[in-house]
Amino acid sequence: MTDLLYSETEDDLRAAVRSLVAARGDTAALAARAEAGSPYDPRLWASLAAEMGAAGLLVPEKLGGQGASHREAAVVLEELGRGVVAAPYLTSSVVATQALLSLDTDTEAVATLLAELAEGRRTAVLAVPLSAAPDGPLTEGAGRVTGVADAATADVLLVLRADGLYAVEAAQAVVEPLTPLDLTRPLAAVTAGEGGARLADAAAGAAAVRSGLLAGAGLLASEQLGIAEWCLEETVRHTGERHQFNRPVGSFQALKHRMAQLWLEVVSARAAARAAADALATGSPEAALSVAVAQAYCSRVAVHAAEECVQLHGGIGMTWEHPAHLYLKRAKADEIALGTPGRHKEALAALVDLQAP
User: Fold this and answer.
1) How far is CA 108 from CA 70, 96, 98, 115, 136, in A?
2) Cα(226)–Cα(74) distance, rounded to whole angstroms?
3) Which residues contact 5 (CB under 8 A, 6 or more apart)?
């Protein structure tokens, strides 16, 4: 039977990441950096990726990684979601890394790049829009590709062309920063042009890209879970401290019902996200099914939790100084990342042969 409970190793990893985020993940400083156009904290990324080794969780030990699995990477993303951390973990350590792992890792170019990513020395991103779904059309990167997440700070771009998948140095491409809704996950338009090291032929390259997008969509559900958990906990805390009519507003029955409903949604989101991570970790033939369920559900739970957080905080929830807006914007951006909930529902319906009326 599938065990979705967290292992002792996963709990220890969670504690380490949470401690790091608490020490270095100041949301006020994040908001200021994001507004200035540079949301990343290089010291935090160095500690997470290199010192803690989180960047190499998916990479086997023989290739320089930690030899862990998607379950452990999901725990990291939960904590990054809770802290609304700006870091290229999803795009580089999950999506790009999974795509490379789907190739022939005995190839020197692939093995070398995987080792560099695992050690946190470099980052890589797929040159596809953040909105690309695992089963959707793949944009060939020979032209201009818009909405590429974390491309502005990446060292390497993985570009799918008509004749194969290429690793292109970012310095050889034209990267134009865009203004996204979620300032903590920068987007850019990328024009890779020609050149680069060929990693695979067209068929293998397309399959690798889809594998990366599937893993990204599945583990994005864990980030969304972390967002929802923080929003619920912060809302319960705030409504327990804020008083009206000489009573905590959290004691009012209407608000109790709203927060209880949100708790049920978060618990269900945890089950869906864990199932997706476990299916990816075990190579389950139903991985695509679990990922579609997780994304169709967790996307909307994260948005609902963030909306409730803003509203139930009252006036302060609408201010720039309070971090609620960061969570709402991340949740809304995540909702359309790697496939919308509607797209994943369509994929789910096709997988279980459930025809629309």
Assistant:
1) 24, 17, 17, 11, 30
2) 10
3) none
How many separate helices (H) and strands (E) can be counted in the chain? 11, 9
> Residue 48 in contact with residue 66, Cβ under 8 Å?
no
- The answer to whether 140 touches 162, Cβ cutoff 8 Å, is yes
Instruction: Write the CB contacts of 263 (distance below 8 Å, at least 6 apart in sequence).
Output: 232
Q: Which residues contact 187 (CB under 8 A, 6 or more apart)?
A: 130, 146, 147, 148, 149, 151, 177, 178, 180
- For 237-278, write each residue's pLDDT tens digit: 998 888 888 788 877 888 899 999 999 999 999 999 999 999
Helix (H) or strand (E) holding 200: strand 197-200
| Cβ-based neighbour number of residue 251 at 10 Å | 13
Could you give the CA distance from residue 139 to residue 345 in angstroms, rounded to a whole number?
Answer: 22
